Amino acid sequence: MSTKVITLTPTTQHARRGTALAVALAAAAVGPLLLSDFASFIGARIAVTAIIGLSVIVVTGYTGQLSLMPYTFAGIGVFVAAHTITGWGWPFWFAAAFAAALSVPLSLLVGLVAVRLRGFYFAIATLTFASAVGATLFEWDAFTGGQKGLPVSRPVIGPIDFAGDRAYYLLCLVTVLLLVWMVMGLQDSRIGRAMTAVRENETAAATLGINVMKTKLVAFMVSGMIAAIGGVFHGMLLQHVTRTPYQTPFVEAVGVTLVILVVVGGMRSPWGPFIGAAIIYVQLEVFRTALFLQYFIAAVTAVAFVVVLLRLPDGLVGLIKHEAAAVRRAPLRGGVRVALIIAVNVVVLYGIWRLSR
Amino acid sequence: MSASVVAQIALIGLAKSGVIAMLAVGIVLIYRTTGVVNLAHWAIGLVGVVVYVLLTGVDVVPPLPAAAVGLAVSALAGLLAQRLVFSRIHRGQVVTMILVALGVGSFFAAVSQMLLRGQRGEIIVTPFLPGSTVDIAGAVILASELITILVAVAACAVLLPWLKRSRSGRALRAVAQNREAAQLAGIDAARYAELAWVIGSGLAGLALLLLIPHSAGEQGGVLSVVHLVPLGSLLIPAFGAALVGGLISLPAALAGSLIFGLVQELLILAPPPISDQREVLAFVVITVLLLLRTERFFASNAELEALRS
After folding, report:
1. How far apart are CA A332 and CA A138, in angstroms?
2. How does pLDDT run across A281-318, given as a tens digit for each residue?
3. Surface-to-core class of residue A289, CB atoms within 10 Å of its CB (0-12 exposed, 13-18 middle, 19+ buried)
4. How far off is chain A from B6, nearest CA to CA, in Å?
5. Domain of A162?
6. A307 touching chain B per CB within 8 A
7. Which residue in B has a C-alpha nearest to residue A115's C-alpha?
8. From the list A124, A132, A294, which residue is nearest B290 (CB)?
9. What local confidence, expressed as pLDDT, does residue A1 receive?
10. Could you tell me the pLDDT band of residue A9, with boundaries at 50, 70 and 90?
11. Smallest Cα–Cα separation from B36: which of B205, B233, B197?
């Protein structure tokens, strides 16, 4: 009798991982559709938030520059969508490309400041930029429609009408997956590696012959474009947009929430914003009826955020990868561990949900 | 334009400067001793105000003691933030440090909203200072605004000489200038870092307690949504003021608070394009201050190195 030794070749592992991913994506795609229109709306909101979150991944996760103004770029996309799609009858993909192009001058300006300023000086500069754009461009009534805001219509592509929440959710999901794929490609590209080098040590990167200035400018351009595209989809999601959330992202606290959910999800993986957005928005919807609980969740999320920053540099994506590796090493022990973690979370959430009734 | 109108605007601007100055002094003190750019500063002050609102809301505690409790709670919140969170981060990790400060700010803002039981909209706050008006040579301002100016001046008049002369003040500055040398000289750096957080956070509580419960004049104050967020309504101008001194020099930060309070208010009197765009001007000034890297003018290279390592 000979003992058969089965070893997993990298290709098999890759295939398994691909299968797991495909199953997860299929669940993400079908789940909300089976539930309700409203669940699809939340799904679309998660996907749109993940798109805007991807802009944070490129500039903060990859390049290490903390920009606190993603919603300013999203705002540009939102109002460009309102004018071009609804006003001028453009197809949405053309509007998205146009919004991305329009974001470039602003992102170049921010990038030029980033070349000169480091660390918190730059972070504070982006805060003042966000406020300054809010007090000028978004204050311009012809662009933002003043207090009343502007309507945005959802697209019709050939025979498919994306006006309904279910159809629109699928469109957002496809878009976010496409962008995740592109951002993953960026990470492995020459410029993506340059970004990592700049994040780790600017001086060392420069001695390796990396053009730090060019790398930062590209990072800001790509990030601004993604956020503007996210804005176009955000506009179509809401169908009616007003300027306030983009004008004062910190009064509305959306800017802070975005950074928090990206970090909790995992700042260095394109899947991070997706996971972070899903966790926060699903919780907020489950506890929608109790304002008190929403603030409780905000407080708990802030604590989780700080813990992730101090202990889990790769966020939940890192944790999932770690647990998946544990399951592969010792299927039984690892499996029990993962099941326990999930069970504890479900019990706690269910308990809170029951208490809120 | 009559002189009394100008004087009136100037006094209102000075009151705003006073609030900004107290916030800016806290920011500078905390940054110099611990290297933390405290984006949670507003939210820590806010917790004290919310405790004050809760105590006065149930009519058990009279306003003035309630304000004292609020101030103490802010100081305690700052102490906890330093001891539990900020003391665990290495100074070199700048991005992590800012993000953590943002997280701590979000935490305290969420706790504030939780304590108010998620009331949306505006909450009426009982004042602890008189709501009457004072006539100073024709300029009529609220008594609470005059008191704010006096308290800010008094706080600085106590704090600056204390830092310069007293034993604890000198130890605090020693920690700020060179932590390792200070430790070799027998100074407990961790304790003085906590002291800086307590003083800075207490000042933040005091500033917000002078501002919010009196924001609506005779009726007392209004706690609205612009106050209940991590960065509040005055944290960015306070950072601007602190940046005049490169987050390092206290006297320069005080001069900065005059720019972002007094001068900004006085620009109301300027011709239209300037008077309408005062806020945008303030943002431009902050960006220019950032680009100038003002800390170069106030600290030696050795001290800057110490702040970053």
Report:
1. 56
2. 887 777 777 767 778 878 888 888 898 888 888 888 88
3. exposed
4. 26
5. 24-274
6. no
7. B291
8. A124
9. 46
10. low
11. B197
Give A207's pLDDT tier (boundaries 50, 70, 90). Answer: very high
Higher pLDDT residue, A33 or A63?
A63
| Interface confidence (ipTM) of the complex | 0.84
Residue A326 lies inside a defined structural domain of this protein: no
Does residue A353 lie in a domain region? Answer: no
Question: For a pLDDT cut of 90, what percent of chain B falls above it?
Answer: 29
CA B100 to chain A, closest CA, distance in angstroms equals 6
* Tally of CB atoms within 10 A around B305: 11
B283, pLDDT greater than 70: yes
Are residues A113 and B291, on separate chains, in Cβ contact within 8 Å? Answer: yes
pLDDT band per the 50, 70, 90 thresholds, residue B205: very high
Query: Under DSSP, is residue A164 helix (H, G, I), strand (E, B) or coil?
Result: coil
Check B231 against A250: CB less than 8 A apart.
yes
Q: What is the mean pLDDT of residues B42-67?
A: 89
Structure-token match 């474009």, residue found: A225
Closest in B37, B100, B230 to A306, CB measured? B100
According to DSSP, residue A342 is labeled H
Q: Is A267 helix (H, G, I), strand (E, B) or coil?
A: coil
Q: Are B201 and B77 in contact (CB under 8 A)?
A: yes
- Using a CB-CB cut-off of 8 Å, the residues of chain A touching B104 are 302, 306
How far is it, in rounded angstroms, from Cα B70 to Cα B47? Answer: 8
Q: In this structure, are residues A261 and A273 in contact, taking their beta carbons and an 8 Å threshold?
A: yes
> Residue B37 and residue A128: Cβ atoms within 8 Å?
no
Share of chain B above pLDDT 70, in %: 96
Question: What is the number of structural domains in chain A?
Answer: 1
Size of interface A-B (CB pairs under 8 A): 128
Of B37, B103, B286, the CB nearest to A120: B37
Whole-number Å distance between alpha carbons of A109 and A124? 15
Q: Which residues, 6+ apart, have CB-to-CB distance to B193 below 8 Å?
A: B33, B34, B82, B87, B175
Which among A120, A124, A292 has CB closest to B117?
A: A292
A129:B283 CB<8 A: yes
**Nearest-by-CA chain B residue for A63:** B95
- Cross-chain residue pair A113–B287, CB shorter than 8 Å: yes
Spatial contact of B130 and B144, defined as CB atoms under 8 Å apart: yes
A160 by DSSP, 3-state: which?
strand
Residues A47, A221 contacting (CB under 8 angstroms): no
Q: Are the beta carbons of B95 and A64 separated by less than 8 Å?
A: yes
Is A354 contained in some domain? no
- Among A253-262, B63-72, B170-179, B184-193, the range of highest mean pLDDT: B63-72
Residues A337, B278: Cα–Cα separation, whole Å: 58
- Among A120, A127, A260, beta carbon nearest to B236: A127
- State the CB neighbour count (10 A cutoff) for residue A184: 14
Q: How far is B44 from chain A (nearest CA, A)?
A: 14
